[in-house]
Write a structure and sequence with these properties.
It contains ten helices and ten strands. It has 307 residues and is of the alpha+beta class. The chain folds into two domains: 100 residues, Phosphorylase Kinase, domain 1, CATH 3.30.200.20; 189 residues, Aminoglycoside phosphotransferase (APH), C-terminal lobe (Aminoglycoside 3'-phosphotransferase, Chain: A, domain 2, Alpha-Beta Complex), CATH 3.90.1200.10. The strands form three sheets. The protein has a five-stranded antiparallel beta sheet with strand order 1-2-3-5-4, with helices on both faces. It has a three-stranded antiparallel beta sheet with strand order 6-8-9, covered by helices on one side. The protein has a two-stranded antiparallel sheet with strand order 7-10. The relative contact order is 0.13.
Length: 307
C-alpha cells in the first residue's frame, strides 16, 4: 500500500520502505559491491522518507528509493551529477556505485561519497544575507550549465520545471478546503498571478527541491547542495521557494537581487510556494504543517507590502 500524495508527486511504497534497514543494505552491498562488504552500515542522523540513506563506512552513503516514482530519479542522478558537479561552486553528491534491484529490494539505488555538513537552519548560518547570495550564485551557475539533452520536466521531477497549471485543480481544491483558514480572495489572486506569469525563456537546469534539508552548512556558510532527484531542465522558478521558507526581509531581497529575477519568475515562485503550503497545511507531521503556516504567512505579508 502506498502513501497518498498530490497529483504528479511520487509516492512511497510503505511495504518497501518498511523493509529498508541496515540488514538489507548489508546484503545489497555484499552482493553487488563486495569490495565494501566489510564496511559498517548505520542510518544517517537526519533521514528522509522518499529515499532512505545510510552511512557506508566513514566516507560513503547508500541511498535507496522508497517508491517506484523516486526510483525514476536514480539513473538521472547517476548520469548528470558527474556532469554538473565540476561546474558548480559548492559540493554536490558524487556517485560511486550504481546498484540494481536485489535480495527482495525492487529498485535501483546508489552509493555516494559522504559530504560533511549540517542541514541549513537560521541558527547555524552566520549571515543569512550572505548565505542567500551564495545560494543564488550556486543557482546561477547551475542555470548556466549546457541544458542540451537534459531531462525535461516530468514524473521524475514531480513536474518541477514544468507549468504551474499542472497543479491548478489541486490548488483550487485546497483553497476551497481551507477557506475558513486562509483569505480566499488574496490567495486566489496570488495563484492567478502565478499562472498568468508564463515561462517564455529557454529551458535551463533547475535543482527542483531547494529546501533547508538539502542545503548543507559548514562554519556558518553554504557548503553543499544535495538531493538532485527533482532536477531537470525547464523553468527554474521552482528553485525560488526557499525565499519564503528560509529567507526573509533583507536576505530574501539579497537572494532575488543576486539571481536577477524578473517579476514573472518571482510570481511563479510564489505560486510554487503557495501550492506546497496549501497541500501541507493538514500534514500529520506537525513540523511540516507549521512550516506550511509559516510560508502562508510570509506570502500574505509580502502581498500586503507589494500590492
Amino acid at each position: 500500500m502506498s502513501e497518498a500524495a498530490p497529483y504528479g508527486v511520487p509516492v512511497t511504497d510503505a511495504a518497501v520502505a518498511d523493509r529498508i534497514d541496515v540488514a538489507l543494505v548489508h546484503r545489497l552491498v555484499a552482493e553487488q559491491f563486495p569490495q565494501w562488504a566489510e564496511l559498517p552500515v548505520r542510518p544517517v542522523a537526519v533521514d528522509g522518507w522518499d529515499n532512505r540513506t545510510f552511512h557506508l563506512g566513514e566516507e560513503m552513503t547508500v541511498r535507496l528509493p522508497s517508491g517506484a516514482g523516486y526510483a525514476l530519479q536514480v539513473a538521472k542522478e547517476q548520469r548528470w551529477l558527474p556532469v554538473l558537479g565540476p561546474q558548480l561552486p559548492v559540493e554536490v553528491p558524487t556517485p560511486l556505485g550504481y546498484g540494481r534491484p536485489g535480495t527482495g529490494y525492487p529498485y535501483p539505488w546508489s552509493v555516494y561519497r559522504w559530504i560533511d555538513g549540517r542541514t541549513a537552519r537560521r541558527e547555524r548560518i552566520d549571515d543569512l544575507s550572505r548565505f542567500a547570495t551564495d545560494l543564488a550564485t550556486f543557482l546561477r551557475a547551475l542555470r548556466s550549465v549546457d541544458a542540451t539533452d537534459g531531462p525535461a520536466a516530468g514524473p521524475h521531477s514531480a513536474w518541477r520545471g514544468g507549468p504551474l497549471s499542472t497543479y491548478d485543480a489541486e490548488t483550487r481544491t485546497a483553497i476551497g478546503t481551507h477557506r475558513d483558514r486562509v483569505p480566499v480572495e488574496v490567495v486566489t489572486g496570488i495563484w492567478h498571478a502565478a499562472l498568468d506569469a508564463t515561462w517564455t525563456g529557454p529551458a535551463v537546469w533547475f535543482h527542483g527541491d531547494v529546501a533547508d534539508g538539502n542545503l548543507l552548512v559548514r562554519d556558518g556558510r553554504l557548503a553543499a547542495v544535495i538531493d538532485f532527484g527533482c532536477s531537470g531542465v525547464g523553468d527554474p522558478a521552482c528553485d525560488t521557494v526557499i525565499a519564503w521558507t528560509l529567507l526573509h526581509g533583507r536576505s530574501r531581497a539579497a537572494f532575488r537581487a543576486a539571481l536577477g529575477l524578473d517579476d514573472a519568475t518571482w510570481a511563479r515562485g510564489r505560486g510554487w510556494a503557495l501550492w506546497k503550503a496549501l497541500i501541507t497545511l493538514d500534514n500529520p507531521d506537525l513540523a511540516k504543517a507549521a512550516g506550511a503556516r509559516h510560508v502562508l504567512g510570509e506570502l500574505l505579508a509580502e502581498h500586503t507590502v507589494t500590492r
